[in-house]
Amino acid sequence: MHAKWAFVGVALAGLMGSAALSQSFSAEPIAFDLEDGSADGSPVLIAAYEPPADTRPSFAGAGSDRSASVATVGLPTPSIILGRVEPGREADFGIETLLPDTVAQMGFGFDDLETRVAMRDNDPELFRQLLEQGHIDPPSEQLNAALQTELKRMNCYRSTIDGLWGRGSARSVGEYFGERPDGASWPDQQPSVELFRAIIAVPDVACEVPVAAPVRATSTNNRATSQRTTTRTTTRATPAPAPKPAPKPANKPKISGGGGIGVFR
Predict the structure, then answer these.
(1) Of the residues 152, 177, 200, which one is the last residue of a structural domain?
(2) Residue 147 is inside which H or E element, if any?
(3) Which of 162, 185, 200 is at the close of a domain?
(4) Is this model's pTM higher than 0.85 or not?
(5) How far is CA 3 from the centre of its chain?
(6) Would 232 be classed as within a structural domain?
(7) Do 87 and 113 sit in the same domain of this protein?
(8) Residues 6+ apart with CB under 8 A from 153
(9) What distance lies between CA 230 and its chain's CA centroid?
(10) CA spacing 20 to 30 A to 18: which of 49, 111, 130, 252?
(11) Could you give the CA distance from residue 206 to residue 38 in angstroms, rounded to a whole number?
């Protein structure tokens, strides 16, 4: 049998009597179990059925109470159904936990963003089961970095992806939930598998980029004026040296004449 298709076989111990053939028969499942004893290693569903008490045969005859002693005469004893469940069809058989075949064929890695978005949009129920049953969880040693990666992609975390959970990482959790359109909140800002699941369970948000406050023009002008004033004050404080006075001309000797011989004084 191909592992992808369900095969069902019913084993009934005993033959139905003529009285039982005239009655309708319904069976309710009372138990099921999973085993992997099939030839190819795929899981086998085993379900046990038991007939309800109101399907006991009735017998005609006044004052007769034979039904109490022959309650199961001619009815099937508990039946066994064996078969394989097609991957993704667990709900058809009332199974709430995904089978290994389903996880192997339809599961994906925690960092496979493309497959995650596609399944979340196209098969939300299977995505929910994979998520809630832990099949998309990152390994514990990669949890911090995985959270930083998710938050950085949405611009909520703006530092290095290093797996070290500090104040920047914690603050990014608050920024993320502040942008969630559904108004969801989170009890703390510490890394956890539950936090990772809560983030990837819904479409991305976009955290706003913080903008630095602009410098006021008046402050700039005041600083420039102060600088110019200081420069001028410094210039006045150091006056240029006064020019030296010109040297006086030397006294020329006077010549007086009177007679034949001049006298120098």
Answers:
(1) 200
(2) helix 143-153
(3) 200
(4) no
(5) 33
(6) no
(7) no
(8) 204
(9) 58
(10) 49
(11) 49
Q: What percent of the chain has pLDDT over 90?
A: 42
CB 217 within 8 A of CB 225: no
Amino acid at 112: D
User: What is the structure's pLDDT at 247?
Assistant: 62
Distances from the Cα of 252 to the Cα of 202, 245, 249, 255, angstroms: 113, 21, 9, 10
To the nearest 10°, the Cα dihedral for 101, 43, 93, 5? 70
Name the more confident of 135 and 211.
135
Highest-confidence segment of 33-42, 110-119, 209-218, 247-256: 110-119
* CA-closest candidate to residue 75, choices 49, 113, 45: 49
CB-CB contact of 75 with 2 (8 Å): no
Which tens digits make up the pLDDT trace of 174-216?
999 999 999 999 999 999 999 999 999 999 999 998 777 676 7
Q: How many domains does the chain have?
A: 2
Residue 110: what pLDDT?
97
**CA dist., res. 176 & res. 194, Å (int):** 15
